[in-house]
From TrEMBL:
Keywords: ATP-binding, Nucleotide-binding, Transport
InterPro entries for this protein: AAA+_ATPase, ABC_SmlMolc_Importer, ABC_transporter-like_ATP-bd, ABC_transporter-like_CS, Mo/tungstate-bd_C_term_dom, P-loop_NTPase, Transp-assoc_OB_typ2
Molecular function per GO: ABC-type transporter activity; ATP binding; ATP hydrolysis activity
UniProt topology in membrane: Peripheral membrane protein
Location of this chain's protein in the cell: Cell inner membrane
Domain ABC transporter: 4-239
Domain of life: Bacteria
Protein's UniProt name: ATP-binding cassette domain-containing protein
Similarity comment: Belongs to the ABC transporter superfamily.
Length: 343
């Protein structure tokens, strides 16, 4: 195994706008990278280039020192030692779980002894060791997906690629499968690239998140870092909840905006020589209190453990906040803000 490297990779299908442009990133060995972005931003294209189903128009892809593809040549998928898990994880209904899992080895003509040992290990990793002789029809949806994961492990791939594997599942099964994927990653030690448009899924699963938009990489960082220090409006708006305020800030203001600077920035008109700054405020940093900025509660969404509020400041800007108590809509209130981040 080795780290996966994409160096300035582009893909142009000749449609007038490149599907992927100048994308550089590294996935360390044993890392779990989520490729996150809205539909159509180029995620699947990146995954297909890593797998070898598409060749890059420009740039290069390496596994460690080994060149997998550039604009001149591209190794075919079967010579890359990767496994791709598709959304529809078709299992053979007439085969047992063990036979399904062993199928890729049978096709490759791997010896019977190794065969049996690998199937055992793979089923162990997905915690299905006791299900080897069952048929897919006797399994739950979650168990079937675990069989599909075990099947991709038996060939001992360097990299496991997953393209929105949970997109069609109901919420309950998704949660179960998120746990399965985390467990699978921990126990297999595989390097994983996981495509999703769901930011909460990306945050729950991955060790690193690469945020894409319109074929470009906007930021790559661990989930906690991307949540606390997003780069730019797009990432700020895509990851987590919050509101973006427009503030007048002095030259050289720090990225982390304190309460004092925030108040002053809201009071002031835009400086003539500079545009207003975009500042992200997370709901957990907005506190309803007897003092602070005057605001009105405009909407409230009950979420069980709390209410999620939309507030309107005097100048018409919006904030989000949480409350333990049922709020009065359109009531005046006051808020203090304990954390804000210049985008
Ligand atoms: P995502 O997976 O993020 O939804 P895709 O990688 O599937 O995005 O697509 C990115 C862009 O490239 C889209 O505009 C899509 O229409 C285009 N695209 C993808 N595959 C092809 C193809 N084979 N031929 C032409 N255009 C394509
Ligand atoms: Mg896709």
């Amino acid at each position: 195994m080795a780290k996966l490297i994409l160096n300035n990779v582009s893909k142009d299908f000749g449609t007038g706008r490149p599907a992927v442009s100048g994308l550089s990133l590294e996935v360390r060995e044993g890392g779990f990278l989520a490729l996150l972005g809205p539909s159509g931003c180029g995620k699947t294209t990146v995954l297909r280039m890593i797998a070898g189903f598409e060749a890059p128009s420009d740039g290069a892809i390496y596994l460690g020192e080994r060149l997998l593809a550039d604009s001149e040549k591209s190794l075919p998928p079967e010579r890359r030692n990767m496994a791709m898990v598709f959304q529809s994880y078709a299992l053979w209904p007439h085969m047992t779980v063990a036979e399904n899992v062993g199928y890729p080895l049978k096709v490759r003509g791997v010896s019977k002894d190794i065969h049996r040992a690998r199937i055992g290990e793979a089923l162990d990793t997905v915690r299905l060791a006791d299900y080897a002789d069952r048929r897919p029809a006797d399994l739950s949806g979650g168990q079937r997906q675990r069989v599909a994961l075990a099947r991709c492990l038996v060939t001992q791939p360097d990299v496991v690629l997953l393209d929105e594997p949970l997109a069609n599942l109901d919420r309950h099964l998704r949660q179960e499968m998120e746990e399965t994927f985390r467990d699978f990653h921990r126990r297999s030690g595989a390097t994983m690239v996981y495509v999703t448009h769901d930011q909460s899924e990306a945050m729950a699963l991955a060790t690193d998140i690469a945020v894409m938009s319109h074929g470009k990489l906007l930021q790559v960082a661990p989930p906690e870092e991307i949540y606390a220090r997003p780069e730019g409006r797009l990432v700020g708006g895509l990851i987590g909840r919050g509101a973006i305020l427009s503030l007048a800030l002095p030259d050289g203001a720090p990225r982390k905006i304190d309460w004092q600077a925030l108040r002053e920035g809201l009071d002031k008109p835009s400086p003539a020589d500079r545009p207003m700054a975009d500042v992200l405020v997370r709901p957990e940093d907005v506190h309803l209190s007897g003092e602070g900025l005057a605001a009105r509660i405009r909407a409230s969404l009950y979420e069980g453990e709390r209410y999620s509020l939309t507030l309107e400041l005097d100048d018409g800007q919006t904030l989000r906040a949480f409350s333990r108590h049922r709020p009065q809509i359109d009531e005046p209130t006051r808020v203090t803000i304990t954390g804000a981040w210049r985008l």
